[in-house]
Amino acid sequence: MDFTKDQAERYSRHFVLDEIGPQGQRKLSDAKVLIIGAGGLGSPAAMYLAAAGIGSIGIADADDVDLSNLQRQILHGRQDAGRAKVLSAKETLNRMNPDVAVHTYRMLVTADNIMELIQKYDFIIDATDNIPSKFLINDACVLAKKPFSHAGVIRFQGQLMTYVPGEGPCYRCVFRDPPPKDAVPTCKDVGVVGAMCGVIGSLQAMEAIKYILGVGDLLTGTLLTCDALTMRFRRVTLPKDTSDCPVCGTHPTIMKPGF
Questions:
Q1: Strand pairing of 222-227 and 232-237?
Q2: pLDDT score, position 177
């Protein structure tokens, strides 16, 4: 693609980077990233991907904007209360960068629709806030051979990892099976600092950008954790042997997402 004068100015800080340059910017412009969840994690991830010039961004979320969201979900404003999150997200992203095509999916992502949903995207961002959805996204991405970024936040803590087919363990390798219902506290129960979502969601966007460009070291085989109270980041090396994983192992037993 040839860049317009406006685009050349918009991406000028990318053009001077050896790791990006005009050629890398074309890769970003051709890329398609799906974000599942337009909340605390999805907001910063979507905004930085749009600002970076990702050509096509999908946003999947079934919920409406609530006043209690606004402390962390920076895609939305007070005027959006009661509106579909995906519509608010699309308007915000289009205002930021009209070059980006934003595709909205106002629906609950389930075992029945996730495979079709992720099919046309190059990279998936898990920005959900519940454990069952994280296992569902993991299993679907592994089965469809789609790279994705997992993340989670609560209180002042956050974590993330990246899965690339054939290059490291998946989410289920690490956490194995979903815990019993209500065993893990939610942000609604114990709270979350909005800026923590910004930190981790931005790192998810960074992982997507690095994957698309083919530069740097991704968080494959590594779980990165952050404690904002002590401002300590920790890299946890994940097990290399994934042979007994029920979805990405040598003899998988999970053949469909949600099972």
A1: antiparallel
A2: 82
71: phi then psi, degrees, rounded to nearest 5: -70, -15
Query: Going along the chain, which residue ranges are E strands?
Result: 32-36, 56-60, 101-105, 123-126, 148-154, 157-163, 222-227, 232-237
The first and second tokens of residue 2, run together, are 């040839």
Q: Which residue has the tokens 């398609």?
A: 32
72 in Cβ contact with 40 (< 8 Å): yes
pLDDT band at 259 (very low <50, low <70, confident <90, very high): low
Angle value at C-alpha 64, between 117 and 66, nearest 5 degrees: 140
What is the greatest pairwise CA distance in the chain? 55
Mean pLDDT to the nearest integer, 122-145: 96
Q: Quick one: which of 179, 170, 176 has its CA closest to 149?
A: 170
**Pair 105, 87: CB distance under 8 Å:** no
Burial 80-94 (b: 16+ CB within 10 A, else e): beeebbbbbbbbbbe
Residues 153, 39: Cα–Cα separation, whole Å:
12
Could you count the other beta carbons within 10 Å of the beta carbon of residue 128? Answer: 23
User: How far, in Å, CA of 141 to CA of 165, rounded?
Assistant: 9
CB 117 within 8 A of CB 34: yes
The whole-number average pLDDT for the span 141-161 is 97
By the 8 A CB rule, do 203 and 225 touch? no
Q: How far is CA 67 from the centre of its chain?
A: 23
CA atoms 110, 115, 121, 122: torsion sign: positive
